[in-house]
Amino acid sequence: MADKIKLFVNGVEVEVEAGKNLIDAVGAVGIEIPHLCYHPALGADGNCRMCLVGIEDGRPPLVPACKTPAMAGMKVLLDAAHIKKIQHDVMELELINHPTDCPVCDQAGECKLQDYYMAFDQAESRMNVPQVVKGKKMDFGAGVVHDQERCVVCGRCVRFCRQITKTGELGIINRTDDARVNIFPGRPLSNRYAGNVVDLCPVGAMTSRDFRFKQRVWFLKKAPGICHGCAKGCNITIDHNREKYKDDIIYRFRPRLNEQVNGYFICDAGRLSYKAENEGRLTEARLGNKARPIDDVLAACTREIERAEKIALVLSPNCSLEQMAAVQALAEKLGAFLSGYSDGYIKPGDGDGYLIQDDKAANRAGLGLLGIDCSREAFESAVQQAQLLINFNNDLTRSYKESDLKKLLQGTKVIAVSSHDTPGTALADLAIPVASYSEYAGSVVNCDNILQSFAKGLSKNNDLADICAIAVQLGSPLGSPKERFALLQQSISALKDLEPDKIPAQGLNLNDSEAANVTA
Amino acid sequence: MQVKILSAKFDIKDANKIKVAKKHGAYSTLDKVFSMPPEDVIELVKNSGLRGRGGAGFPAGVKWSFLPKNTGKPVYLAVNSDESEPATFKDRYILVKDPHMMIEGIIICSYAIGSHDTYIYIRGEYTTQVKVLQAAIDEAYKAGYLGDKVAGRDFKLNVTVHRGAGAYVCGEETALLESIEGKKGQPRSKPPFPAVAGLYGCPTIINNVQSIASLPFIIAKGAEAYRAYGTEKSPGTHLFGISGHVEKPGMYELPLGLPLLEVIDKVAGGVWKGRKLKGVIPGGSSTPVLLPEEAKTVTLDYESMAAHKTMFGSGGIVVLDETVDIVHLVKNLIDFYHHESCGQCTPCREGLGWMLKIVKKILRGDGSMADVNLLRELCDNIEMKTVCVLSAACTMPVRSYLDKFRHEFEAYVAKNDSSAAEAK
Amino acid sequence: MSDRSQLISTGTPFQFDKERDAEFERLIKRYPTRESMILPALWLIQEQEGWISQEAMAYAADRIGTFASKVYEAATFYTMYHLHPMGRNHICVCRTLSCWLRGKQEIVDYLKNEIGLQPGQISDDGKFSLEEVECLGHCGTAPVVQVNGEFHENMDVDKLKSLLATLK
Question: B400 and B314, same structural domain?
């Protein structure tokens, strides 16, 4: 743990972490120092001047909090009249050239200028001379749209592209109040994390072409989630809303801070992967290619299971640990071979050593921890011997060409327990729709061996069953979450002494325990 | 009143050429310098009381002693030849008339601070001056005063001229460093100070051309000889620039401490065309204006200027005669500082543009008393809230004009009111 | 300052000529980082072409090994870099304090009326371009005019007339 020091804010003693700047140190104990340009992932720049605070008996007496390390005994003045006046004055100056277009601005509702105006300014405009005119609706590439007039020139986006992605597409050009963010002509944003500049922008200058004008943010409900786009398991906020007469729909994914996993950011592919939660879903149970009531299809499944002499099971590397446990128990019960073969989920060379991984599955590490065989040979031989294959959401068309898959499955009946209506699902004889990862709770283990739990993000009008429940319906003995967790505790030693709800929010690093050595 | 210390060779033909300069004593202090331990050189400069001649007036020797020892990093010297404060035109004379005096000063300073790389940051507008300077540097290399063995000693020194390209703010020492590093000239937050983390993150000393050029004299003649000029706290001489409404504008070397009005009368020939004095800007455009009454008691040194709530600055004196339209002058000033705002800090970036538009509005005859008051209020709201003092360089003088010549602003507003009344 | 973000494309790639190439290589050895060459490289381009095109900026960035956005930032921040072609004779009139006090407006008015040039404009025949600039550091000999880098001090309309007559 970091050392603690004591200092005073407005005369009140507070204990804060040493080695941080004033914004972060004091912010951690719930006292907000207003700031626009500072961002913990990008460091202090000191240009916005909103974070100027007084230091009693200090030299100099006025300092930018972002650039000032918290020191023991420091007497920080935040609510002194002269500091409040500075906050008011700086806000006035931030706003003189800012268009008053909140009603049509996407940022409204999550805009620092709005928040700070309400907190520190609340004055009528004294700007009675023409405003500076700059560029609007500029296409910066990568789905980012820029409005130079709304921009407060804090430079977060510029620093992001220079420090984090090291692609440097953005710059602040000109000087004076003509300073503005721009791309060099012909060199637009072309990095795989560009969408983060939209989140980083404290105002409405950077908007997402994908999201803009779709929803007012105050209508959105926010649910924490884990991105299932790759093995990194970036933490996200799922912004969703159920409009009247419609289903609950996800409008965007945004990064959610997890220092241990993804920091403040996510990749663009992950950001846009919310679309797959809304679209292309399998929503009906099918017998052959005809929709049937799910109970009928489940009954048909049971008949197939009884009829088959040999059964093979395959599951997706995206399944949660709980789902894997339930399916593993089902396999044991049925005396069936269980495979996690899913090489097609891996795109060699696609990873970048930062967040993006080659492996596009969220829980391949889970397959390993539960000792589930992932080899192609074993999978194919099991399928060839089996009369029935039950596929738990593994999109085999990622690993096989459709013609090869057809050949492989010749003579084998297929039950697809599937969240999405993929070409693979279409090949199945029976199909059962299940929830996708934003609609169920579970845990996954990422590429760095960090186990993360996530809650159910949203409920659809017709809520689909979790794979766990389907596995139970098909005969898995692990009927309750408790039983499933107990099985996980047997395989993952780090969980042994934990209650299911005690997994830390930042995730459980299995490398820190013997769990890393566990074999099934 | 005039003296010839720094300007000793200014009247000598071709003194910019090394041959001529050497004949008149250039590089003659090097034997003495290299025989002294570097600490002694710093001590000597400290004792001379030489104050930074760029505008801030910080004692040069003290600045040097802030350098941390044995950091394992190179120490850089940056010579500030950006000279861009309006009404300042002194360093240019050194660059053109006696560049070898400055190069000699660079060698002295480099030896004292243990630096082997100097960057001379010269403003881009000095197109002809940079050629003379570069030619002098080339000569110094050829003559063995620069390069791997300076004056035959085991001391390496490279001097590189780095040209600015039109940005007043690069006269601010950290903006200057940014500019050498290839960036926009945007001042850095301090701390860290350049002496600790300056150019390329290494310990760096930044001195003005005139400060550096003063060193050969101090080494040759000693601290006492330098102190023989000027006042106790403001010793030495300065290259004063006198411009504006005087009969004989120009650059004059004077000891510090002389009475301002006497200098204007006796050295610069007094207010031109027999007109009356309206005000004096004592140290460059960023210094608060003095009314004739106030100017009577001012002497040309740091202390007297401070006592009169203005600044010695760069020593650029501007004389305003009775015909000057102060509102127009304020517009001219704000126009300058707005144009030169680096655009980094919100108050300066947004505020100066706003001030400019307000003063233009008043000048157009569209202003109100509220506008005048707002202009005055903005001076307070902007000043000292920023990384550097560029905004203060605008608001300090503007405030002084608003306070001392408020009636002129009111007159513009009154004209507006009466025409508005007529229109009814 | 006015917006300088609009770059002009020549449509053809830029390259240093032999002399500038050698100068670039000489200078780069003087700095511990390649990015320090941004300002000198822009000067070399301007020396060679008279102005700095979009292609030239991209060339400088690639040659130095830095982001084009950084070169773009510098080129638009420092106002002496010309981002479009200028007249054969580029006339800069200082507009700041001492030159203003001593009659720079007469100089500008003369140029406006006689050559028909507003500050910021280039004459149709490409002979002249006019720019009002901030303090040129020649306040003791104000007003001052700089033509193609050469200073002309203590200017008045008569002197300006004879100066213009010498320009081609």
Answer: no
Q: Does residue B250 carry a pLDDT above 60?
A: yes
Alpha-carbon distance of B18 to B102, in angstroms, equals 12
Given B227, B248, B271, the domain boundary residue is B227
Is B11 domain-assigned?
A: no
Which residues make Cβ contacts (< 8 Å) with residue A83, sequence separation at least 6? A52, A53, A54, A77
pLDDT tier for residue B423 given thresholds of 50, 70 and 90: low
- Given CB atoms, is C77 within the 8 Å cutoff of chain A? yes
Specify the CATH number for the domain of residue B300: 3.10.20.600
CATH number at residue C55: 1.10.10.1590
User: DSSP secondary structure string, A317-374?
Assistant: TTS-HHHHHHHHHHHHHHT-EEE---GGGB-TT---SSS--SB--S-HHHHHHTT-B-
Say yes or no: C2 contacts chain A, CB-CB below 8 A.
yes
Instruction: Answer yes or no: is C61 within a domain.
Output: yes
At what angle are helices B99-113 and B127-142 packed, to 10 degrees? Answer: 60
* Closest Cβ opposite residue C68 in set A135, A180, A184: A184
Tell which of A208, A234, A268 closes a domain: A208
Instruction: For residue A93, give the nearest of B351, B357, B374 by CB distance.
Output: B351
CATH label of the domain that carries residue A240: 2.20.25
Domain co-membership, A251 together with A358:
no
**Chain mean position to CA A200:** 15
Please name which of A7, A74, A85, A13 lies closest in space to residue A52, comparing C-alpha atoms.
A85
Q: Which chain A residues have a beta carbon less than 8 Å from that of C4?
A: 173-174, 178
Q: In whole angstroms, what is the distance from residue A385 CA to residue A8 CA? A: 73
- Kindly list the residues from chain B whose CB atom is less than 8 angstroms away from the CB atom of residue A178: 343
Which CATH number goes with the domain that contains A153?
3.30.70.20
Q: Tokens 């003369």 map to which residue?
A: C110
* Stretch B194-199: mean pLDDT: 97
Q: Is residue A120 part of a domain?
A: yes
Residue C3 located in a structural domain: no
Which partners does chain A have (≥3 C-beta pairs < 8 Å)? Answer: B, C
> pLDDT tens for residues C78-91?
999 999 999 999 99
DSSP letter at C8 equals -
> Looking at the complex, does the CB of residue C13 fall below 8 Å from at least one CB of chain A?
no
Which of C55, C57, C76, C83 has the most A C-beta neighbours within 10 Å, making it the best mutation to test the interface with A? C76
C68/A175 touch (CB, cutoff 8 Å), yes or no: no
- Give me the mean pLDDT over the B225-234 stretch: 93
In tens digits, chain C (168 residues) has pLDDT values of 789 999 999 999 999 999 999 999 999 999 999 999 999 999 999 999 999 999 999 999 999 999 999 999 999 999 999 999 999 999 999 999 999 999 999 999 999 998 889 999 999 999 999 999 999 999 999 999 999 999 999 999 999 999 999 998
Asked if A323 and A442 touch (Cβ cutoff 8 Å), the reply is yes
Return phi, psi of residue A299, to 5°: -65, -40
Residue numbers of the domain that contains A58: 4-79
Of C40, C70, C140, the CB nearest to B251: C140
Does one domain contain both A165 and A255? no
Does C65 share its domain with C34? yes
Which residue is closest to A35 within chain B, CA to CA?
A: B346
Residue ranges in chain A whose pLDDT is less than 50: 514-520
Residue-number span of the structural domain to which C72 is assigned? 18-77
The H helix count followed by the E strand count for chain A is 15, 23
Counting every residue, how long is chain B? 424
Give the pLDDT score at B420: 62
What is the per-residue pLDDT across B329-380, written as a single tens digit (0 to 9) for each?
A: 999 999 999 999 999 999 999 999 999 999 999 999 999 999 999 999 999 9
- Please judge whether A173 and C73 are an interchain contact, meaning their C-beta atoms are less than 8 angstroms apart: yes
